[in-house]
Amino acid sequence: MLCATLLLAGCLEIHPTEAEERHFDNGVAFYEQGRFDEAISEFTEALETYPRWAQTYRNRGAAYLGKGDFHKAIADSSKAIELDPDLAGAYSNRGGAYIEIGEVDRGIADCNKAIQLDPNDAVAYYNRGRGYLFRDNDKAIADFNEAIELVPEHADAHSCRGTVYLDKGEFDQAIADLTKSIELSAETRDAMTYNNRGFAYLEKGNFDAAIADFSKAIELDPNLAMAYGNRAMAYYELGDFDKAVTDCTQVIRLLPNSAWSYYRRGLTYKELGKNDEAIRDFETAISLSSDRSLIQQAEQEIEKLKK
């Protein structure tokens, strides 16, 4: 989940031509519709005749960030900063792009600079929170709190904060935030948000709600292997072993080297009394895994079945 800042033409202190402003405004409109390629084209047209327009580089960088072209987002944001070192949004956007490519420390540093320049930059708090995800959950939550306080309808901040609560084992808070994110993003629903809420329900023992969420995640992204794996666990807990086997098999189709999926399917075959199939899966799990704990568990299961 990405977030970027844009500047509207009315906020500019420079005075581009009417044609340049038209391209700029068109670019903003396309960006807000999620039509990133068309936004990039319009911003590029504006830059053809006004190549030192920092705000347009910032906006084009935001569009590149939106379409997942992180290196071009960094290049455009850097150019914007070169032209205007006080352009907070360019640091926010570059920080988000750095975080996406794994350069988290650089990303956090850029977000820090953005917040220094503009303490009300919700995007900077959100992106920095993403940088802290699973490194420092308390700092991540603090940043998502700031982003939500500044923009209460920030669906992605609610989703990310819910994910952190999930990681901390605070399942009620996770469900509340993930539900809010789903409500706020009804038109662009995210499979991982449903998957994460489903996992929170699974941990609370609400297996029917978990299955409903995992099924929705799969509907939105049929290749989301973890949703099939999670749904298999919910079916297993309900004693619906045939459906659990089907979902484990789908995970294996998507991730053929997933040792844990073979192990879990083996456990399910065992419950169905299909011992040969179970042993075969446990043996495959052993052959694929370097996890000593998993190997020992699979060996113990084989030993039990062969007695």
**The CATH topology of the domain at 1-121 is what?**
Serine Threonine Protein Phosphatase 5, Tetratricopeptide repeat
Structural class: mainly alpha
Mean pLDDT reading: 93
CATH homology superfamily of the domain at 1-121 = Tetratricopeptide repeat domain
Biggest sheet record: none
Would you state the CATH class of the domain at 1-121? Mainly Alpha
Query: How many distinct beta strands?
Result: 0
User: Whole-number radius of gyration?
Assistant: 24 Å
Give a written overview of the molecule.
Helix 15 packs parallel to helix 17. Among the domains are: 1-121, Alpha Horseshoe (Serine Threonine Protein Phosphatase 5, Tetratricopeptide repeat); 257-307, no CATH class. 76% of the residues lie in helices and 0% in strands. The protein has helices spanning 18-32, 36-49, 54-66, 70-83, 88-100, 104-117, 122-132, 137-150, 155-167, 171-184, 191-203, 207-220, 225-238, 241-254, 259-271, 275-288, 292-306. With 307 residues, the chain is mostly helical. It is built from 17 helices and no strands.
Provide a short characterization of the protein structure.
The chain has helices at residues 18-32, 36-49, 54-66, 70-83, 88-100, 104-117, 122-132, 137-150, 155-167, 171-184, 191-203, 207-220, 225-238, 241-254, 259-271, 275-288, 292-306. It has 307 residues and is mainly α.
